[in-house]
Design brief:
The chain is an all-alpha fold. It is built from six helices and no strands. Helix 3 (about 35-65) packs antiparallel against helix 4.
Length: about 150
């Protein structure tokens, strides 16, 4: 899409009332990825982005708190909890990147369409996983291929 149509898509999603999940699910297939649906998913992704950034800030503050514990078992427990928290944040960091890419895809006007086949991903799948970039069938093919041939 051109820059002019990108601005138009972004403006269209910004000025539309946010509908409920039930209203989005009830829309006919011919209305797929209309401005109301795009606004719904953009709002959902922006909320998720905000939560992920908040969690990252809380983790940073939590890890800065140093507690000196004389008991080696207690120290080991605290270190294990920190390691678990860091692994969780690493997964969230990767999810944050996908969320930001999905928001950019909405602004570009390409959200909701399978990267591989160009077919609609589907509203139910996007509600369950708003960062999905493949249709269910394409994702299943990719997972089967990975299982058979490895990463």
């Amino acid at each position: 899409m051109t820059t002019k149509s990108n601005k138009a898509t972004s403006a269209a999603t910004d000025n539309v009332a946010i509908l409920s999940e039930e209203e989005i699910r009830a829309m006919p297939e011919k209305d797929y990825m209309n401005p109301a649906q795009l606004a719904f998913f953009k709002a959902r992704l922006q909320q998720l982005e905000k939560e992920l950034l908040k969690n990252a800030g809380e983790t940073t503050e939590h890890l800065r708190e140093t507690v000196l514990v004389p008991d080696p078992a207690d120290r080991a427990t605290i270190e294990e909890e920190h390691a678990l928290e860091l692994r969780t944040r690493d997964r969230e960091r990767k999810l944050l990147k996908k969320v930001q890419q999905s928001i950019a895809t909405i602004d570009a006007g390409d959200y909701g369409w399978c990267e591989e086949t160009g077919e609609p991903i589907g509203v139910p799948r996007l509600i369950a996983r708003p960062t999905a970039t493949l249709s269910l069938e394409a994702q299943q093919r990719r997972e089967l291929k990975q299982k058979l041939y490895g990463d």
